[in-house]
């Protein structure tokens, strides 16, 4: 559990593909201006992290809500609800269908009205031009990106991925360390203009959140910006994905 700003903590976790490749996952704890706490995403904490979380939040009693911001991150919702039965469990419409047995709050986090309830603490952004909940459940391109307004820290799941590789390896695989999801081609809506909508959204995100200095990415770590702006690294990530975007434009217009 890493204390990144006065009112922001990030907890790193494990998530293994085929029980072998650990691509990581995370959950963030944020203290709101009213003194209450909110969790971003769900994770089944180990004993040390749970002890620290409970110590910060009066045995969890000060945690008022859990915002699950990626429709396909559902594995740990049950354990979080069991740990915090009093907290509002807020998710996407897919959370409601995939884990209907849980006591979900009726509000959906993808809805602007729900996001407005937390606007004193967070900014939210959902990518344009991609399916938020695609029929092909192997495509996890879209999610709700959250920015803590006070600290400027971004919490993001699959939409943006951080390649935390040693400097030596970067020489053999050059490219931006922050990248859009590798299955962007599958996630783009099958219509004319989707690629341009995605580019427009990404560039606007970079400009609006340009002063961001820390990005907490589920896959696979915490990125600290020193000599470049968030706008710069978004532009580089777009350049890396431009072939995909161009091919989509050629096919659909």
Structure description:
- InterPro entries: RibonucZ/Hydroxyglut_hydro.
- It comes from Allopontixanthobacter confluentis.
- This is Metallo-beta-lactamase domain-containing protein.
- The protein has a single domain (2-252), classed as Metallo-beta-lactamase, Chain A, CATH 3.60.15.10.
- Helix 7 runs antiparallel to helix 8 (230-252).
- The protein is an alpha+beta fold and 253 residues long.
- It starts with a strand and ends with a helix.
- The strands form four sheets. It has a six-stranded mixed β-sheet, with helices on one face.
- The protein has helices spanning 47-56, 77-83, 93-98, 112-116, 167-170, 184-187, 194-208, 230-252; strands spanning 2-5, 8-13, 16-17, 21-22, 25-31, 37-40, 63-67, 88-90, 122-125, 145-148, 154-156, 160-162, 178-180, 214-217, 221-224.
Summarize the structure in short.
With 253 residues, this protein is an alpha+beta fold. Helix content is 29%, strand content 23%.
Classify the oligomer.
Answer: single chain
CATH class: Alpha Beta
* Strand runs, count: 15
Radius of gyration: 18 Å
Taken from the alpha-carbon principal axes, the silhouette is globular
CATH homologous superfamily classification: Ribonuclease Z/Hydroxyacylglutathione hydrolase-like
**What percent of residues are in strands?**
15-25%
What integer is the average pLDDT? 90
| CATH architecture call | 4-Layer Sandwich
Number of H/I helices: 8
Which series of helices and strands comes N to C?
EEEEEEHEHEHHEEEEHEHHEEH
Protein name: Metallo-beta-lactamase domain-containing protein
């Amino acid at each position: 559990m890493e204390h990144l700003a006065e009112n922001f903590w990030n907890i790193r976790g494990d998530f293994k593909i085929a029980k072998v490749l650990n691509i990581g996952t995370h959950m963030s704890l944020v203290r709101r201006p009213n003194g209450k706490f909110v969790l971003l995403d769900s994770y089944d904490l180990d004993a040390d992290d749970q002890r620290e979380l409970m110590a910060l939040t009066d045995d969890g009693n000060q945690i008022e809500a859990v915002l699950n911001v990626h429709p396909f991150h559902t594995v740990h919702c049950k354990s979080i609800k069991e740990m915090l039965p009093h907290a509002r469990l807020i998710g996407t419409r897919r959370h409601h269908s995939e884990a209907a047995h849980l006591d979900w709050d009726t509000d959906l986090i993808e809805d602007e009205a729900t996001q407005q309830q937390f606007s004193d603490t967070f900014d939210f952004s959902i990518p344009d031009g991609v399916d938020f909940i695609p029929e092909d459940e192997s495509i996890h391109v879209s999610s709700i990106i959250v920015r803590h307004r006070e600290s400027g820290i971004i919490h993001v799941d699959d939409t943006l991925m951080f390649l935390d590789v040693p400097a030596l390896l970067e020489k053999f695989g050059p490219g931006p360390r922050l990248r859009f999801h590798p299955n962007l081609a599958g996630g783009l809506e099958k219509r004319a203009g989707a690629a341009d909508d995605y580019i427009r959204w990404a560039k606007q995100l970079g400009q609006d959140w340009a002063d961001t200095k820390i990005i907490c990415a589920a896959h696979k770590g915490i990125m600290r910006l020193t000599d470049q702006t968030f706008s710069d690294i978004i532009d580089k990530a777009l350049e890396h994905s431009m072939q995909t975007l161009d091919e989509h434009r050629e096919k659909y217009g």
